[in-house]
Write a structure and sequence with these properties.
about 130 residues, six-stranded antiparallel sheet, three-stranded antiparallel sheet, Protein yippee-like, metal ion binding, metal-binding, zinc, Yippee_fam
Length: about 130
């Protein structure tokens, strides 16, 4: 990969291999593991580019700048989430929800379905 002119290239992080042998969601662009399938809270969410998954946690991601964003359910303080392996924007992290009925989203991730690959790690019997 050619050197980047942005100063962020020096801080590129290493992808951590996590959850070996467990069903995961991985980055569709570089295959870095992003989350365990067990961390899925809901598939009934919308992202910028289509359906989204609300997840309890994520790995191999870095946060963008925190900002107030007007979403379908009101104003939330969020930060975009990027894959550490390829810098693809995967969704966002909910820092704060203004509406008390939306507080359950705080400290959770919205990951866009189209940016993920579902890895089931099935094995076939001989």
């Amino acid at each position: 990969m050619p050197p980047s002119s942005s100063s962020g290239s020096e801080t590129k992080q290493q992808v951590v291999q996590a959850y070996d042998g467990h069903p995961t969601y991985s980055c569709s662009k570089c295959s870095a593991v992003i989350s365990l399938q067990d961390e899925l809270i809901s598939k009934a969410f919308s992202g910028r580019d289509g359906r989204g998954f609300l997840m309890q946690s994520a790995v191999n991601v870095k946060m963008g700048k925190r900002e107030d964003r007007s979403l379908m359910t009101g104003v939330h303080t969020v930060a975009d989430v990027f894959c550490v392996g390829c810098d693809e924007r995967l969704g966002w992290y909910y820092h704060k929800a203004a509406d008390p009925s939306q507080k359950y989203k705080e400290a959770k991730y919205l990951l866009e379905r189209e940016k993920l690959i579902k890895e089931n790690n099935w094995t076939l019997d001989d």
